[in-house]
Amino acid sequence: MSTPRRVILELGTGNDLHGGDYTKAALRAVQDALHHSSLSMLRSLGIDPAAMLVEVTIGVQRPERVEAERVRASLPHGQVTVRVVRGGLDVPDPGRDDPAVIASAALAVRLPL
Predict the structure, then answer these.
(1) Which residues of 34-73 are buried (b: 16+ CB within 10 A; e: fewer)?
(2) pTM over cut 0.70
(3) Domains contained in the chain, number
(4) Interatomic CA distance for residues 8 and 14, integer angstroms
(5) pLDDT over 90, % of the chain
(6) CATH code of the domain covering residue 75
């Protein structure tokens, strides 16, 4: 079997404007990235979507507050791994302890070609 090569890199952003839910922002970022891509290449080449290696990187200010398993479960195809790193943006609300959370997502798809 050949070494898997990256064939797709898709980016997305998501937010949770009230409640400070980092997982919700991360899920929205992943969905944003998914809605920018299509698997037509896989169909054209006759590749089973289950063969995809999907590497998800999420950037948020509080990585420990993202439920990585929920993010992984939200991907419809492939063998998914999730890594959560410090990134994204928290926008404080001066009158409350209720930041707007902004997450970034990068989805890389590798195929053995």
Answers:
(1) beeeeeeebeeeebeeeebbbbbbbbbbebeebbbeebee
(2) yes
(3) 1
(4) 20
(5) 70
(6) 3.30.1330.20
In the chain, the amino acid numbered 40 is S
Closest CA to 57 of 15, 4, 103, 3: 103
Pairing state between β 96-112 and 4-16: antiparallel
Please list the residues that pair with 6 across neighbouring strands. 110
Q: What pLDDT band is residue 1 in, cutting at 50, 70 and 90?
A: low
* Rounded-to-integer distance, Cα 7 and Cα 42, Å: 10
Q: Report the C-alpha gap between 9 and 14 in whole angstroms.
A: 17
What pLDDT digit, counting tens, does each position of 14-66 carry?
999 998 999 999 999 999 999 988 778 888 888 888 889 999 999 999 999 99
